[in-house]
Specification:
Order of helices and strands: EHEHEHEHEHHEHHHE
Radius of gyration: 18 Å
Largest sheet: 7 strands, parallel
InterPro entries: NAD(P)-bd_dom_sf (IPR036291), Sc_DH/Rdtase_CS (IPR020904), SDR_fam (IPR002347)
CATH architecture: 3-Layer(aba) Sandwich
Strand order of the largest sheet: 3-2-1-4-5-6-7
Family: Belongs to the short-chain dehydrogenases/reductases (SDR) family.
Number of helices: 9
Protein name: 3-hydroxy-2-methylbutyryl-CoA dehydrogenase
Low-confidence stretches: none
Number of domains: 1
CATH topology: Rossmann fold
CATH class: Alpha Beta
Keywords: Oxidoreductase
Distance between the termini: 41 Å
Shape: globular
Number of strands: 7
Mean pLDDT: 96
CATH superfamily: NAD(P)-binding Rossmann-like Domain
GO molecular function, one term: oxidoreductase activity
Structural class: alpha/beta
Length: 254
């Protein structure tokens, strides 16, 4: 699918990997809707790329439905969905005081990262399936954002790894399910990237993490994630695939 002229939705588009992807889509000529729970940051990014900011909670069906309608009203029906919104956490199963990890923390991560992504995708797909087909019968494409933690989860990452591993597991059946509608689905599993969250860590910690990456021995650049995400859109034969983007990194237990 050619990106130029298409309407695109980016969840978590106000910062980090989502912001970089929104900017790259806009640079390539897409009409971009920046979806985020932080509307202030979304407004800032949207104003800089000529897009529209939309407050959206991906776990809430009414919020997603309203966001899809708002984006379509401004840009027309979207054919591109970048699911990048997500959260992370680290909790040992048995805490230092001997108590069990809070179930609420586990449920929150899974609800946002997995259920929220599915919620956004199912509602997008239902609208996208109504559109006229393009070349090769394609109607749309969606991206999931997993993590290398889906494969190499570290100590305390049970919730995060489970949610990201579930996205990996959902990729192929989603692609198969939506094939009849001409909608593709792929996943990127990024490693260690220089996101705002990473930048909050002390510099020595960042340097240590970067040094653990075989090559190149540095943190990934958000724009590198964005470039791959946009390549998936333009390469029609990429479907049902999970791509690690990690510089050959394999995470240690801790």
């Amino acid at each position: 699918m050619k990106i130029e002229g298409q309407a695109a939705l980016v969840t978590g588009g106000a910062s980090g990997l989502g912001e970089a992807t929104a900017r790259e889509l806009a640079r390539l000529g897409a009409r971009v809707a920046v979806l985020d729970v932080n509307i202030t940051l979304a407004q800032q990014v949207a104003s800089e790329i000529g897009g529209i900011p939309i407050a959206c909670d991906i776990t809430d069906t009414a919020s997603v439905t309203a966001a899809l309608a708002q984006a379509a009203g401004k840009h027309g029906p979207a054919r591109i969905l970048m699911n990048i919104a997500g959260i992370g956490t680290a909790k040992r199963v048995v805490q230092k005081d001997g108590s069990a990890a809070p179930l609420e923390d586990f449920a929150r991560v899974v609800n946002i990262n997995l259920v929220g992504t599915y919620n956004m995708s199912r509602l997008f797909a239902a609208e996208c399936a109504k559109l006229a087909p393009l070349e090769d019968g394609e109607r749309g494409v969606m991206l999931f954002t997993a993590s290398v933690a889906a494969f190499d989860g570290q100590v305390g990452q049970q919730a995060y790894s489970a949610s990201k591993g579930a996205l990996v597991g959902m990729t192929l059946p989603m692609a198969r399910d939506l094939a009849q509608h001409g909608i593709r689905a792929c996943t990127i599993a990024p490693g260690l990237f220089a996101t705002p969250l990473m930048r909050q860590l002390p510099e020595p910690v960042q340097q240590s993490l970067a040094a653990s990456i075989p090559f190149p021995p540095r943190l990934g650049k958000p724009e590198e994630f964005a470039q791959l995400a946009c390549h998936i859109v333009t390469n029609t034969h990429l479907n049902g695939e999970v791509i690690r983007l990690d510089g050959a990194l394999r995470m240690a237990p801790r």
